[in-house]
Amino acid sequence: MKTIQGFMLIDVDVAALNNAGNDPASKLDNAIVTKKIRKNGKEYPYVSGQAFRFWWRNSLEQHYNWNMSPVIREKKIAFTEAEPMKYPDDDVFGYMRAGKKEIKDPETGKTKKVNVTLTRVSPLKNSAVIGVAYNPIVQNWASMTRQEGDAVPFGIDEYCSVMKGMFSLNTEMVGTFSDTNKTGFRNINEDMKKLYLEQDTELINDPFAQDKEGKPLQLVRMNDEIRLKRIKDTILALKTLSGGAKQTTNLADVTPKLIVLANFKSGNHPFSHLAKEERGVAKFSIEALEEVISEYANQFEGNIFVGKRKGFMDEIEEKLKNLADDDKIKFGPINAIIDEFVKTIKLG
Predict the structure, then answer these.
(1) CA-to-CA distance for 134 and 265, rounded, in angstroms?
(2) CA angle, corner 73, sides to 81 and 92, nearest 5?
(3) Fewer CB atoms near the end CB (10 Å): N or C, the chain?
(4) pTM given for the model
(5) Closest by CA position to 60, among listed 97, 83, 91, 96
């Protein structure tokens, strides 16, 4: 398995990036609570993995002209078109389209329902984005005062936080589709497979799955040019991430202020503990990065790329430059590092 492993820190002030509805504990009639999670007896704000993916999709649509799969709603469920060759987001972000179809049994002549559900495990996996250091979430009083009469008060949760998130992109899965009748692996049906093979695709052997006779199952794979573009666009879109609740009055920049990227030979994520809390302050651990470089030396392909925005954690800049001087990492400004990393992405 070949993956791209990434870690990022964002830095927001007076933000409310992902809210969770009304706050029943508030004394105000109208109060909104932000999403938070408890760890070690303290509450930390977080952005759900789903919301993070929503920002990511928007960036790809707005800045990289991705033709997004339409969302279809039926009663209480919603799903995308589940056409991974036509829609790059179905390919990269995965899908589940449940359904049953009535067919006539050739032996009995009776109609029966068969499962035609299509599912795809997402090649792109990501964590939630969570605060690194404890900094109390504050519910502030606000009001609507433009109307005649009394002000209408409401409460909003707000916080300042350095927040961490990580992601993993399986580059071998992108543009590669299975029709194996197994949950998560039946990406396409027989008709789609036939149609895809009439286009610019090829059949390849699945290195991990076999049929009842012990023969490798076959996968449908798109051409490398399209696959590589989808992979590169996905990483480049990190430069233009935007989103979050309360942007009108609590504008927050959610682009990475520090990012770590690497080509990796497995699905294990090596960067999960690069940030820590130290005396109430979020810190990036150079020691943890050095240990990862040493511990996983045989798993990295090429250099580890670290980008950092000037003005953010400037106290670690010299140490990162020293690591770069030792040829262990490539270090520079965020966008330049992302661009440089993307040039190293290869298939095969």
Answers:
(1) 34
(2) 35
(3) C
(4) 0.91
(5) 91
